[in-house]
Batch of 3 targets.
Target 1
Amino acid sequence: MGILNQTRSAISMGLTVPVARRIKTSANISAVSSGIQLGFAQSDGLLSIDGKEHSLSEITSLSELQNGDLLVGCSDGLHCFSNAEELWGVAIETGVESIVGNVMVDGLGTAHLIRKNGELSPLDAQSVLFISIGPTIAIATESGVVSTYSLDGLKTWSRPVRGTVGERITALGWSDDTLVIAREGHGLVPGEEEALEVEYWVDGQLENRFDTKGRVISIDGFWMGLDMGGVMLGQDIICELQHPANILIDRGEHCLVGSWFHLHKISNKGIEWAVETKGMVEYISSNSAGDVVLVAGSDQNDYSDPEPVVVVDSNSEPIDKVDETSSIADWGEAPAIEIDASELYGSESSYEDLAGFAPTQPTVRGDALMDALNDDIEPVIQSTQDEDDLMLSLSLDIAEIIAPSPDAGGDQQVRAGEDGSAIVTLDGTGTRDPQSRIELWSWVDQSGKEIGNADRLRVKLMRGHHRFELRIRDIEGRWSSDSIDVKVE
């Protein structure tokens, strides 16, 4: 399906770090957490905490608190574990979509503050898109609103909305007391490129604003990942990657980046090392020391067996990376054809005769071939009027160029089956392209990961809110996009 069906190429020579451990799984991973407790969750509801297993309903998210308690979000409720034992559990009718720190988003997209013993306090935020916790709780909604809340849940600030056409927040994060917001604003003039910007806010005051060359889809500290492949530190692009930098963890002088099938360590000097995993890097979690980094994800080209959870020590000494063996090395050697120069350049024998096989069609000698070509040539007389008509037609075409206009279709609301999932069709065939100028289609999910590059796509979704973006690129390299929201009940 689109880019996911591409064959992974071997990593070129460089540095890597050895995998400390591979934890076997029985189903695809849905969340990981490495801190005081090492935990991971599978799509079938199996929860493993420090090697001890629990069976729950479908698990959507994990979040470890400062005291080591592990919050577990499921399709039917919220649970809390300490020392691998459940402390409490509460039922939630709409299920849990995600958890960040002690803030939960339910299946309807509403944020709640999780208090002691699972008591929930709703926050004034619906259709939540991103949450980041620093000195305060920052929340961005699908409507482009960014607000902050005290750690007790009181609303303290809202970012002024910019423009009248609309904008979308693409990523959100904290660097100490600085709130970093990435946004895209749509141009006021048809065909104008979208405005891609990053803003720094401190105590409700705008400290800096600058343009970016790509859409920012992940933020931690002043590190930022781009959807077109690349990592920024502040306003500087540190390195280019071939695939979107979907997940990023700030480690001070460097960061850990998940992109495609690789975990990268990147400093201000560029890529320090890269670890290739069998599954796509969809989940990363690191403890405070950085010596336990969990990496997990499914191999979306091969569904035969679930991929293991990989444990990496990001502080270990890098070693040389060895190239994978090329498939060319498997080719057998063709038998040598021994001939001398007179045979090779002689006029009586064909190359097929020298190679030892006969051609399927009679060989046409050079003179006969030229004669045949000359017989078929007929002079073509083109009048001046024809040339004038052609130039007029070309000039009209140039004056009447119509830029394609993407259409991701209308928002959808569907009901899940017994397994909690639904098959949804993403249909961009309503896109207007009268002059066939589109050269690339791209469907992207709310994490910034490309899931297909056709105009029409079928996806399997679990209960909750989902947002997809249809991006198109025309023959002149201009991008434009349209979004769709899907709610699975």
Target 2
Amino acid sequence: MDKQKQAARNQKEDVVLNRTLIWFGGAVVVELLLLLLNRYYINYNVSGITLMSNIHKALPVMIAALAVLTVVCAVWLYTGLKKKRSGLIPGLLTGVFGALALGCLAAFRFKGAGIQLMCTLVPAVAVLALVYYLYQREFFAITVLSALGLVGLWLFRKAGGGHAVVVYGYFAVVAVILVAAVLLARRLQQAEGMLKRGEKRIRVLGHGANYALFYVSCAVVAAALAAALILGAAAAYYLMFALVAWIFVLAVYFTVKLM
């Protein structure tokens, strides 16, 4: 019996490892393509002006095509999950095409700053995939919300008073997401981690989920964004480190909890 349990555990660990490696492989591919875009579209030299111009003309078409591919793969993912099939490949393709679409859009709209942001976000998404497969779901949700806060602080600092519509629009979207997350967490807490969908009950969080830390994390992200708006771009720089430190503390806590 012990051997059977050990074999099942080893098989589960292998599946997690393979999925994590696939996500990291996809992140490497996207990162390389973004670096090529940065090299020949942003940091081009005199001899590369013609290539840069051609890329600039092609970017709107590439953005539209990648957006369509993202939607198609998202539908494929939804259909597969509905039929209880593996969503790894369609999910990965959705992420890759979506990241490339956002990368091209960021380069076209924000130039070097946009590429810099995407080159940071892509490995961050790979790390989120690692967190999703290895840690408790509440920690994954906390990490995602904290990452949204970090992106908001980065945008606010980089904008320096410019792109007000984009920055404040992003802050508003994050605020809505935080409120929705708190309401959903409260509903799950009352239902002991279960979410009712029609006549089915789906387990979203485990019995031992730490809802208090989730609420505190939402408050921390909201406070960091509000402090940045009040204190300015200089404070946003230090608030980014504060959020990273908060994620690190939670990572230690949930790692110990896994043991």
Target 3
Amino acid sequence: MNGPVLEVDSLSLEFQARGRAAEVLSAVSFALNPGETLCLVGESGCGKSMTALAIMRLIPAPGRIGGGCVRLRGDDLAGRDEEAMRQVRGNKISMIFQEPMTALNPVYTVGDQIGEPLRLHQGLSKSQARVRAIEMLKSVGIPLPERRVDDYPHQMSGGMRQRVMIAIALACDPDVLIADEPTTALDVTVQAQIFDLLREQQARRGTAVLLITHDMGAVSEMADRVVVMYGGRVVEQGGVREILAQPRHPYTQGLIACLPELDREPDDVRPDLPEIPGVVPSIWERGQGCPFMERCGQAMARCRDAFPPLTRVGEGQEVACWLYPEAAR
């Protein structure tokens, strides 16, 4: 099948609380192509992880999808019942969660946990699943897999637990792998190893990867394309080179300006590292306009009244900002 493997189209997510509904995601749209790495970028609270949970239909109560659709190879997942979604999760779409110590079950061995989706989705026996689990542990670089297959999560380091999570996620050769901050709480050396492992496995299997991160260094290393989110909305998207070299939205410009300059000469006077003033607004404080308005040094009156459409401003690059005449038209 040609075209995107995953399409998120005008997805909205709302939570009912305090006697009214608050919109967490508003008309989020993007597409993920086979074999591609797409990075969702933004500060904590911008909606990245909620987007992933909405795709997986793992939205915590009292949240619900308020509109839009999620299509996996043309099949709308938003309309599937829970039983049908169980056949998709871990099989066609898998997810690596932020913290493996809480995502892994402490009372089952890692071999049992790798084998579970294989038994469920591929009908393997327990002994067959064990053999496959050893193969998966070996493929993600865990030494002595024949012994470690019987270990429990607490017997492994943080980096090894994250490798186990990757093994579980890739066990059934999914079409799409969602990696939600997969290197959180890991040291820099282990982070590099995990990213190398993801690239290696992707190249071997042709899996499309949706990487969720706030680390622009990881974006430059891993991404083919980038979607920048703020306040539950997509504010910019495009190829990684275009986004990093010529960011258009004031928020994207602020994110990139906050990166430290590692190539500065030792005797250069180092200025204070820039920062974006303020904080991400809560879901109760978002109006009809641009959610970044209160933190933006270029905000205009119309920014308060309406959120601008996502408009093409360059080769494959789109931005939602009233600063650009294309959006105003």
